[in-house]
Please model this.
Amino acid sequence: MEQQENKSYQELHKPASEFESRSDYLDHELQIMQPKRWGINLPFRDFRFEWEDLVPAIAGTIGIIAMYSAVMMAWADGLSAKWEHIQLGKDFAIEVARVEMLIPALLFCVLASGVFNPRANLAGNHGPMIPLIGAIALAGAHPLALAILLGIFGLLLSYFKGGSKLVNLTSEGVAGGLLVFLGFTGAMSMIGNIQDWAVGLESAEAGVAAGEMGYVGLVVLGVTVILYAVLARLGKRWLAIPACAITGLLIALAFGAGFDLRFETEMGLPNLNPMYWWGSTEQGWMLGLPTVSHFIASLPFALLAVAMWSPDFLGHRIFQELNYPKNSERVLMDVDDTMTACSFRQMVGTAVGGGNITSSWGTYMIPAAIAKRPIPAGAILLGLLTMIVAVLGFPMDVAVWPPVMRVALLVGVFLPLLEAGMQMIRNEKDAQAAGICVFAAAVTNPVLAWALTMLLDNNGWIGDKERPKKLSKLDRLVIPGSVLLICLAAMLAVGMLEPKYAIPALL
Model:
């Protein structure tokens, strides 16, 4: 082992033909990589490209198109409702999404995660914050003010190693319960969305009335389940996103749902001048530069977004731990480095005209971990692919079509989350902590549930009663208690509990 550590990746690399199986070759690649943190990592010297890297790259591209489009439309609707002089629509949302897919992809996929720090997962989208964007806009927040605050808070948490500390304080039972809840609720949401799309199909030209093609959704879902099961049986689950998404597309077209697919996005570059987007109240976002009031309105939402990072990052790292072989710790995602990358990406991406709220890129990391691939090669491919799609335009229309986008998220994110959560629940103690976490998440939301069950579990009130003996008072009470109070205060401030319990926002 010592001799191996003294050799470089190039010296330790062996061709795939020398291994009994492809899986053994991929395991060996993970074990011999020696990525440099915030240094220069070069293809073929420090890592290699494999055809398996295309799968997470394609999956991440499909996921990010869908997420970015949803974020920008939510901003457009919220700001248009808040301000009389602002009228933003689909064209605005697509242009901003394409800005986000160009500059940040180059800087933070190709360069940051691909070259300078392969242990920092790609900075993608903060999915749980999307439903809140309307409330953020109506509260008088400004996307650029929110980005600056979120970036500052994220850098502080990263500098003090807060992210990795919270991950280490989360037991397998709590983490398993969190993943089970997120996987199950997400899967049910995707199934409902596909069926709603199919039932809503109508076309006067095709002679189809609403409700007549509901069976298309059932066929798409049925074939998806069978194909996913076959891939799992063959040990090829990492192919699930492209295989199932393409199959969903072909089935929908074969059953005559193609009249619902519109190619409206033209080829070209968006406006890449930051002053166009933020320079005045007559163009771009039509908001101008942020003022003090914008920062005040954005503050609780920025705190909430950063508080939600740790459970998000935890879920992604777990997939690597479950799928990577022993002695591959050097290529595991570093939570604090990922927070650093996400913080800079948040500020830079929004400064150039974007509006995304960022987090660890799940639609990339989950299939990459299942495919037993490290971060850098896929990150470079994903960055290049994302920029190509942003320029071409029309692939965005295909990727956001429900039988493609919803199926991709279902098999690439939510079903693997559910499976990983179940794998982590190994005994009665884990099951108890997981059960309480699921229950608390159903009553409130996953973030508050994670904070609460972490506090209960670390003090032996649920789960393993011996766990508190291994932890200091700081780890048992101070840190979990502070996290719970911060999450609760931020949620009460922004009204996140209002929909369920009619508790209005404090601010």
